[in-house]
Amino acid sequence: MSGIGAVFYRDYRQRRNNLTLIIWDLLAPLAYLLLFGVGFERMMGGTLRLDGQQLGYTAFLVAGVISMVTFSVAMNSSWSFFSDKESGIAQELLTYPVRREHILIGKIGFNVAMVLLGSIIVVALAAMLLHVPVRWSRLPILALAIVTATAGWFFVFSACAIAISRMDVFYGVTSAAFLIFMFFSSIFYPLSGVPAWFKGLAYANPLTWQTDLTRFALLGTGDPTTMLYEGAALIAFCAVCLVVAVRYLNRGV
């Protein structure tokens, strides 16, 4: 078995033995879609207009739920990374004949598999049960956005897991990141009607780039030129975070 495959299999075994994380990663976003999406749509009693299209709030929220899957899987994987560091397993892992880049690639591969599984569940539920008008021909764009964003967020949280030595600090950082990145983005609401300062913060947020690209792929909303810019920004975000994560990993854990 290659080093990448060994790391992938180890993460699979680790996650399989922790059903709580699997439920949180895959089912919690579905709860958001059903409770907030369906509930808010009925409460609003109508549709919202986005880029010339009339959309129900449930359809609008689907892309945001996929972004939440990406973010939560990466964050929970960083917790396992931090636990390995605390227990000394990470130091032992670095002594194995596996390149450190391969450790990251193996972990990313498992994260991508988890996120793709969660996204398939979300899209299938949205299309079949909630009658969201999914544009199936654009699913390759969706897959590319998911893979890029998953890698980027995993690199961010892995660097935090390596750099931070105290569990309470790490918990505080990840919890704050979850709230800040989620709510200062286009996950839950369109940005057309928000204040200028809020819009500026939201468009500097990689979760907004991913969510906009996902919404473009699923529903056809958004300007293609803007999507190209946001796609390039998401790729740059992933590349920069990769460099940072490898640098921290090379310093040791």
From TrEMBL:
Q: Taking the first listed entry, what is the main subcellular location of this protein, grouped into a coarse class?
A: membrane
What are the subcellular locations of this protein? Cell inner membrane; Membrane
Task: Show the InterPro entries listed in the entry.
Answer: ABC2_TM (IPR013525), ABC2_TM_bact-type (IPR047817), ABC_2_transport (IPR000412), Nod_factor_ABC_transporter (IPR051784)
Q: How does it sit in the membrane?
A: Multi-pass membrane protein
Q: Which UniProt keywords apply?
A: Cell membrane, Membrane, Transmembrane, Transmembrane helix, Transport
GO terms under cellular component:
ATP-binding cassette (ABC) transporter complex
- Identify the residues that the record assigns to the ABC transmembrane type-2 domain, covering every copy: 20-252
- Coiled-coil region list: none
Per its record, what are the GO molecular function terms? ABC-type transporter activity
- Membrane-crossing ranges are 21-40, 55-75, 108-129, 141-162, 169-191, 227-249
Which protein family is named in the record? Belongs to the ABC-2 integral membrane protein family.
Q: What is this protein called?
A: Transport permease protein
